[in-house]
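Researcher: Sequence recovery benchmark, item below. Answer with residues only.
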């Protein structure tokens, strides 16, 4: 099955937090891990911003964490953001009152499902985003539940 992960799910691959075990299970059983191109920048930002809270993580270990993410990125199916994605995001924002980045993740996943003609499991930890994804008829997984 195709798994689409937003940034809130991807972070759990690199920082141990509630739901990390379920995200790892997703990685192990998915045939495809799809992400929006937006997730790259969001991930780097999330990792760097959480750096102060990572106890017992010396600088060299943190650099390895960033390198690990950059190396893994090459194995994800990275989906671009095009005009169609932005137009679809517009509708998703109005319909579900989503934040901008969340609308891009959801729009990207919906477009990918149409193109592949395969069901997608939308993995995220954001309840509002998951509610919108479910309303758009995607299968959803909140790894923290």
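Model:
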């Amino acid at each position: 099955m195709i798994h689409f992960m937003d940034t809130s799910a991807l972070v759990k691959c690199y920082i141990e937090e509630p739901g990390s075990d379920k995200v790892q299970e997703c990685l192990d059983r998915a045939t495809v891990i799809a992400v929006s191109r937006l997730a790259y920048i969001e991930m780097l930002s999330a990792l760097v911003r959480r750096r102060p809270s990572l106890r017992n993580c010396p600088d060299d270990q943190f650099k390895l964490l960033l390198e690990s993410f950059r190396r893994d990125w090459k194995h994800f199916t990275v989906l671009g953001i095009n005009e169609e994605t932005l137009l679809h995001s517009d509708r998703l924002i109005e319909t579900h009152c989503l934040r901008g980045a969340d609308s891009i993740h959801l729009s990207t996943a919906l477009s990918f499902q149409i193109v592949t003609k395969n069901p997608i499991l939308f993995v995220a930890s954001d309840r509002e985003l998951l509610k919108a994804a479910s309303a758009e008829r995607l299968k959803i997984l909140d790894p923290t539940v």
